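Something for you to look into today, if you have time. Just paste the record in under my message, thanks.
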Amino acid sequence: MVQAVVLDTARDAPVLASAAMQSAFNISNAIGAALGGLVLAAGFGYAAPPAVGAVLALLGVGLAVIARHRAPSPQRVRALPRRDPDFAPFRPLRTPSTGCEEVPRGAKSGPC
């Protein structure tokens, strides 16, 4: 559910959104393992890490529900403008034509 919403929202950068989601997953996995280790080190016993995991899972579900309700509906989302291919940063640099174009190696050059 969350992945679909994120990818739908990031229409112009799905690869970046996928990388960010994978990073968030890895970070949350590390945080969960660290918290599980902390409750074990504090002496709460072997039943405490699953309880911490359940609390973290409920927190994640709550955040997903809140994020889903705060996300704009497809009807309210304006279409994002597409990149203009004539906009300078996206256009390959061209030099003014002098009539003397680059000739492939080994070919006879023209009048230039």
